[in-house]
TrEMBL record, chain A:
It comes from the Bacteria. Belongs to the CcmC/CycZ/HelC family. Its main location: membrane. This is Heme exporter protein C. Required for the export of heme to the periplasm for the biogenesis of c-type cytochromes. It comes from Bradyrhizobium guangzhouense. InterPro entries: Cyt_c_assembly, Cyt_c_biogenesis_CcmC, Cyt_c_biogenesis_CcsA/CcmC. PANTHER family: CYTOCHROME B_B6 PROTEIN-RELATED, HEME EXPORTER PROTEIN C. The gene is ccmC.
Automatic annotation (TrEMBL), chain B:
Its main location: membrane. Pfam families: CcmB (PF03379). One of its GO terms (cellular component) is plasma membrane. It comes from Bradyrhizobium guangzhouense. This is Heme exporter protein B. The lineage of its organism: Bacteria, Pseudomonadati, Pseudomonadota, Alphaproteobacteria, Hyphomicrobiales. Keywords: Cell inner membrane, Cell membrane, Cytochrome c-type biogenesis, Membrane, Transmembrane, Transmembrane helix, Transport. Required for the export of heme to the periplasm for the biogenesis of c-type cytochromes.
Length: 261, 222
């Protein structure tokens, strides 16, 4: 079973139906472990118990960028290889990514209030993540603005790839503009500066959130495929009705057109 | 090459004649700047402090207003299909159209800046700095905005959606444009650093804009 076999939506539906329960179970187990470990993690000497917001906030922030990365790869699949599942993947990912971004902003501002004394600050990292959120919303609006899914897919793919330029800006914003947000401490040259008591739960939570995304994404992709099937069935039925009325008596058709007018 | 030159000449002519609407942008720019004293109060010291930001915001909105004409009129009368099918690469044609649009709609905004700076109580140096940053930054607005215009032309009533899609992409230009002009007027910080980033943004958009616009036109119009 290679990636190319998955190009057939029916095979994808069959395979994902088998994989999805396992993914969901693994997500629940890891989330439970991660939350348990986060609850047991010691209080920070400076921040007290509020440091535990980190275990929710940081995975959400990572995922907000990761999902746009997934969408960019899927957009390449749409534009370059015309992979039939690529645009389904890109479309299904957008609302999930928007939710992660929103949660990152929300938990960040809840954490910012006790730590920095403000819910919001026009700092480089915060502003660039807010722009990312706006771009998710714009992308979802674009998906809904075009009726034909494959045309919408190609328009959205171009926008997704242009928007991917924002990702390195977000990643390095804390190093380039040294403002309120703390610089990178986990993924940096020379190893993490985080203490092991915090690092382990954080990484578990990050993996758990990634699994959560994969689970939600596969489920959303299944929904999207089924939705498209319903749409094409409805269109087939509509054209059949139109055809049969055309084939019917002329007077009835005249009446119908008068009724429409 | 002659085809591109002809395209540029044609676009500029259309934009400047009746119904082209390039100079409407300047009128809109003027209106935004005139509205500002009503909103923030007629205090001249405050206006001169806010001046660069007001001018940049006005120019940004004005260039956004004229952008949806970039492909829309050609799409309506069918000449966009001819441009797409011609032997000139579509990327170059897009770049030529954006250049023509900038010459017809962007350059007048910069020419109007000194007059509007007068209204906002900006001195010579400040006005010069704002005009210079606009000269360096408006190409970036046009070339990234072109992506949105190309996406919008394939939709019905894409105008409002275009604004939503393009504005987030223009935020970096706004940040560095205003930072550079503020640095020239008041700041102890240097003018050079934000100004060179602004130039870099323009150059990057010069490369990415035509390709992205051509891609979305190619995929959207069939």
């Amino acid at each position: 079973m290679s990636l190319i076999d998955l190009a057939n939506p029916t095979r994808f539906l069959a395979l994902s139906a088998r994989v999805l329960p396992w993914l969901a179970a693994a997500t629940i187990i890891l989330l439970t472990i991660g939350l348990y470990q986060s609850a047991l993690a010691p209080d920070d000497y400076q921040q007290g118990a509020t440091v535990k917001i980190m275990f929710i906030h940081v995975p959400n922030a990572w995922l907000s960028m990761f999902v746009w990365g997934v969408m960019s790869v899927a957009s390449l699949g749409t534009l370059v290889w015309r992979h039939p599942l690529a645009d389904v993947a890109a479309k299904a990912a957008a609302p999930i990514g928007a939710s992660f971004t929103f949660l990152a902003l929300l938990t960040g501002s809840l954490w910012g209030r006790p730590m920095w004394g403000t819910y919001w600050e026009w700092d480089a990292r915060l502003t660039s993540v807010l722009i990312l959120f706006l771009m998710y919303l714009g992308l979802m609006a674009l998906w809904r603005a075009v009726e034909d899914p494959s045309r919408a897919a190609r328009a959205a793919a171009v926008l997704t790839l242009v928007g991917a330029l924002n990702l390195p800006i977000i990643k390095f914003s804390v190093d380039w503009w040294n403002t309120l947000h703390q610089p990178a401490s986990v993924m940096r040259m020379g190893g993490s500066t985080l203490d092991k008591a915090f690092l382990v739960p954080l990484l578990v939570m990050a993996v758990a959130f990634t699994l959560l995304f994969v689970t939600l994404h596969v489920a959303a992709m299944r929904n999207e495929i089924l939705r498209r099937r319903v749409r094409s069935l409805q269109m087939m039925q509509a054209s059949r009705v139109a055809f049969s009325s055309e084939a019917g008596s002329g007077s009835r058709q005249e009446n119908a057109s008068k009724g429409v007018a | 090459m002659t085809a591109l030159a002809a395209l540029i000449r044609r676009d500029i002519k259309i934009a400047l004649r009746v119904g082209g609407g390039a100079l409407i942008g300047v009128l809109f720019f003027l209106t935004v700047v005139v509205l500002m004293p009503f909103a923030v109060g007629p205090d001249l010291a405050q206006l001169s402090r806010l001046g660069p930001a007001i001018l940049w915001l006005g120019a940004l909105l004005a260039s956004l207003l004229t952008l949806d004409r970039l492909f829309m009129a050609d799409h309506e009368d069918g000449s966009l299909d001819l441009i797409t099918m011609s032997r000139t690469p579509l990327e170059l044609a897009c770049a030529a159209k954006a250049l023509a649009h900038w010459l017809a709609a962007g350059l007048p905004l910069i020419v109007a800046t000194p007059v509007l700076g007068l209204l906002l109580n900006l001195d010579m140096v400040a006005t010069g700095a704002v005009a210079l940053t606009l000269l360096a930054g408006t190409p970036a607005l046009t070339f990234t905005g072109m992506i949105g215009a190309a996406l919008a032309v394939t939709l019905h009533r894409g105008g409002l959606l275009m604004a939503v899609l393009v504005l987030p992409l223009s935020i970096p230009v706004l940040i560095f444009g205003v930072a550079a002009s503020q640095a020239a007027i008041t700041g102890p910080s240097s003018f050079g650093a934000p100004f060179s980033i602004l130039c870099a943004l323009s150059l990057v958009s010069l490369v990415i804009g035509p390709f992205a616009a051509a891609a979305s036109l190619k995929h959207g119009l069939d």
